[in-house]
Write a structure and sequence with these properties.
By secondary structure, the chain is of the alpha+beta class. It has 5 helices and 15 strands.
Length: about 280
């Protein structure tokens, strides 16, 4: 039987280092979101992110990724996925127009420690249907986050994400092929964090585990396809998709969302979960 990779547990000092990276991610994502207007290209947004990475003294987690395991080296610092693109969209000459639904996935390392986050937003005026898709996905992410606790299982997070979507809106597709993940010294670490699953199953969550929780949800089928660039993942039926993600540290006292500007305090307390930032 093949053994599962060991989950790396982070010390308080290491989690604080990841928080520094998380604040850079949060700030740059907010800047990119603000700049995403009709007439702007996705390459323009990627260039803006590059400038801010350099200014922050950080390193892109995405640029060049993939070459070590046979994929084409990823050529950008952001993944920008528009409308029917689910994840890993490569920025380029795509011009944004009013009504587009855009997902930006972004990660950096600071002093060797990574943080990863994604947001979905509309450009200009979006339909109520698209706005609802983004909100359902965002809520599922937070429901997944609040299900993470010391002594729990990864399946608790997976089940919470899936149940959140199913309870809020019938007919949505929850993408199962692409998952969240552990994070720390590397952008992708054990364990995988699926967006569908059964509570009480999967790896044990212990204190100091750091997870990137990232539901991807569609307005139709959850079936996916890859474009010829070998990176961009799209919905097979052409339906619109949304993607939200945060990096979270699981601590004995509660949760600290490392890529949320407020550490997740507002969302966690609203859901009755414990917000537990580490003291300086």
């Amino acid at each position: 039987m093949r053994r599962r990779p060991a989950i790396e547990v982070k010390s308080p000092v290491q989690i604080k280092a990841m928080r520094a990276a998380g604040l850079v991610v949060a700030s740059i994502l907010a800047t990119v979101r603000e700049a995403a207007k009709p007439g702007v290209t996705t390459a323009d947004l990627d260039g803006l992110a590059r400038e801010h990475i350099a200014a922050a003294g950080a390193i892109s987690s995405f640029l060049g990724y993939g070459s070590s395991f046979g994929m084409p080296a990823y050529p950008a610092v952001t993944c920008i996925s528009v409308n029917d693109e689910i994840v890993h969209g490569i920025p380029g000459d795509h011009v944004l127009v009013s009504g587009d639904l855009v997902s930006v996935d972004f990660a950096v390392s600071v002093n060797g420690w990574h943080a990863d986050s994604a947001v979905t937003f509309g450009v200009g005026e979006v339909t109520a249907e698209r706005a609802a898709l983004s909100e359902v996905t965002r809520a599922a992410m937070w429901d997944g986050i609040t299900a993470a606790r010391v002594g729990g299982r990864i399946g608790d997070v997976s089940h919470a994400v899936e149940t959140s979507v199913r309870n809020r809106r019938a007919g949505y597709g929850v993408v199962a092929e692409y998952t969240g993940h552990g994070i720390g010294r590397a952008m992708h670490e054990a364990p995988d964090v699926p967006n569908v699953g059964r509570a009480g199953r999967g790896e044990l969550i212990t204190k100091g585990v750091c997870l990137a929780i990232e539901p991807m949800v569609t307005l139709g089928s959850a079936a996916t396809a890859n474009l010829d660039d070998e990176w961009t993942v799209v919905t097979r039926d052409g339906s619109v998709a949304a993607h939200w993600e945060h990096t979270v540290a699981v601590l004995p006292e509660g949760l600290w969302v490392l890529t949320a500007e407020d550490g997740g305090e507002s969302e966690l307390t609203a859901r009755g979960a414990r917000f537990a930032p580490l003291a300086d």
